[in-house]
Amino acid sequence: MASIQFVSVTKAFEKNAVIQDLNLTIEDGAFTVLVGPSGCGKTTLLRMIAGLGPQTSGQVLIDGKDVSRIPSGQRGVAMVFQNYAIYPTMSVRENIEFGLKNNKVPKAERVRLVESISETVGLLEYLDRKPSALSGGQRQRVALARAMVKKPSVFLMDEPLSNLDAKLRVQMRIELIELHKKLGTTFVYVTHDQVEAMSMADTIVLMNKGLIQQEAAPDDIYHKPRNLFTAQFIGVPPMNVGDLGVDGVKFGFRPENASLSAAESWPSEKLEQTRPTPHYALQGTIVTREMLGSETIYQIRSGDLSFMVKSPEDTFQVDQEVVLGVEAAKIHFFGADELRIED
Ligand code: ATP
Questions:
Q1: pTM to 2 decimals?
Q2: CA of 210 to the centre of ligand 1 (A)
Q3: Which of 314, 220, 308 is nearest to 258 (CA)?
Q4: Which of 153, 244, 247, 302 is 20 to 30 A (C-alpha) from 325?
């Protein structure tokens, strides 16, 4: 296992600084997810840890040691990519064994290692198949197994699930969480998908334009976003944001924290019972309605403003007049400098 530290790291391509004076500590043994929009610098960070693209200035430390002069192969890291880099002409066994053969590991030890790792990732019964006879998820497991035989102290993964269909992605997420528990190794995982980040990470590092926006546990990043960018990047649909018109202050609330009542029955007894705490209410009209099964997403227009509401109730209809209520405690405020004003 190993911790990773970035100390005042800047990375520039030509004169374009894509990472600027970045400081970050990735905890030993944690599952850390780097997330952010395309081009924000996630892969660049991962490549610096792997030794595939040196920083322009600052230091990258693995287990407290500056690794600038340590070549990629000697850093104790293994990288898994989205296009899983497995050899199509080799069987699963040969693919997994490849690195071990190169390192002249004796045959008996190779067989033992390949079988134990294949068991961990659920490939034992496919060892003699060629990759073309495997599903996407099974191929991704071969790539993981190939990384695991190196016994790395850090696993680096760059969008490893993005080539898989939605259902398989969900399954593989669970498998990766399990794998991380079994191995106890430091995982650094890059994705642009905030749902992946929320569901897998011990710690999320949210980036935008080469800068860390917030580094926190999923719960904290969701409930205590430090700034507007974080508030709107994490969560689907994104947080509703409106302008208070005072010194650039904005307010926001999550779609699931708003309740709807039919305008003609407001204020209802039910509302009073279920919302005993102070809340704000405004009247609007439903303009779209999207039924998702267990919940329905409504878009509400109120004057010039538009809000999304995620509700367990599917009874409201397009064009219906409604009252949207939000508990005061669920409203976030953001200052002009983008920092959260509360706490
Ligand atoms: P994505 O999710 O699209 O993979 P990312 O967050 O991983 O994006 P990076 O690949 O780290 O982003 O790229 C960060 C920035 O650095 C981008 O603006 C990109 O164009 C730029 N960049 C990356 N590699 C190079 C390079 N070799 N030469 C010049 N610019 C580069």
A1: 0.89
A2: 10
A3: 308
A4: 247
